[in-house]
Amino acid sequence: MATTKKTQQAVTRNKDRSKQKLLKAVGKIIKTGGFSTLGVNRVAAVAGMDKKMIYNYFGSLNGLLDEYISSLDFWSNVKGDKLPTEFPNGGHDFVKQMVLAQFDYVHQNPEFQKILLWRLSEERDALKTLTARQEANGEVLLQGITDPHFADNAEAYRAIMAVIIAGTYYLNLFAELNGSTFCGIDLATTGGRKKIEEALAFLIDKTYEGL
Amino acid sequence: MATTKKTQQAVTRNKDRSKQKLLKAVGKIIKTGGFSTLGVNRVAAVAGMDKKMIYNYFGSLNGLLDEYISSLDFWSNVKGDKLPTEFPNGGHDFVKQMVLAQFDYVHQNPEFQKILLWRLSEERDALKTLTARQEANGEVLLQGITDPHFADNAEAYRAIMAVIIAGTYYLNLFAELNGSTFCGIDLATTGGRKKIEEALAFLIDKTYEGL
DNA sequence: AAAATAAGTCACCAAATAGTGACTTATTTA
DNA sequence: TAAATAAGTCACTATTTGGTGACTTATTTT
Predict the structure, then answer these.
(1) Which A positions 24-53 lie with beta carbon below 8 A of chain B?
(2) What is the pTM of this model?
(3) Which phi and psi angles does A2 have, rounded to 5°?
(4) According to the CATH classification, is domain A15-70 in 1.10.10.60?
């Protein structure tokens, strides 16, 4: 007897839609779980598709992940044309507002959190490219506004901003899982987060005053 | 025919030594690779032992990992009796030196880096306990020295230190894999790290001056 | 020295993993 | 409308995973 084949039920076929379903499934898994559960079987199951499609469309899981990463854009809201044209005081108020907004944005955006974490966990060209895009975005502000304003101290200013922004990233990632306290500040409460925001504002103010 | 059994070669048996071999294997894997490759098979192979021993001694891989985490102690050098007895200016110089030392310590210590990362990646009681120990350690300095010195601003000071220390953690983790630049600062070079150190010193100085 | 304990070995299992060849059939092209 | 293309299905493989029962034998206890 030959091998039996079940009759397939009618389905509408659409390559683009299917690719999107797989890409979305990756996002969903990353948002909720993490990279540990991110395999072909899982992705296919979440997408409701056969894993064969991953190989058909993306060659491999890595190909799918790379395309997922490339599709990300967390900086559309701060792209060139969305920026103000005037930056009084070397962008003091603008930078302060931006850092505080960033602190909240990371908190509200689990997908961005996971990408930040992924970047710390695994070496991957697509992630480096993403980082490069982010850096290029920041360079617009740095070269256009703060470098001229701080002149000889431009690099010192950049290093300070590096510490501050890195701090906002870490604190948000830390709060996500450990819930508890960091330096005695409870990052899970709005009160604790308010304290951090005041600290960020203080540090930026002092930098613009004293550098 | 009955099942064949090879004759075993003579080995010296020692439970404690074997447990240590397994614990050390966990450390070795974590230092070099990451948590993704951390399974019973891998650990047993690295330890040069049978995985059965993991279950015999620790009940499960989780049991082994928990005991590994519990065995860690990254703060032995800053424990009570090792601290100075005098803290002029609310510990200004001491805190500054401590943060700079910490920045370097994380850089030099891959195991600590991976634990920091692990804490951001997975919820695990043993890791929370480790965090609690670290916090308790810091509380000695905070409650004993800086809280009294900053009085009404004690919590503001803690929040600032949270940002600064979190920044040192993140920058070190970031530099480890992405190599490239953060806010235009190349963290892979000694020059870039020097800039960060100056930024840390600046921020701490301004905090002690202006808070 | 004999008996009891338990350290270590090994073969095996069930489940999950990544990956593929052969098939059906919806859709597009000629 | 007929033929060609390729989207989607499915059964199957090989490998690796976590986990265990049965065994041998070094070491300890009596």
Answers:
(1) 34-36
(2) 0.94
(3) -75, 170
(4) yes
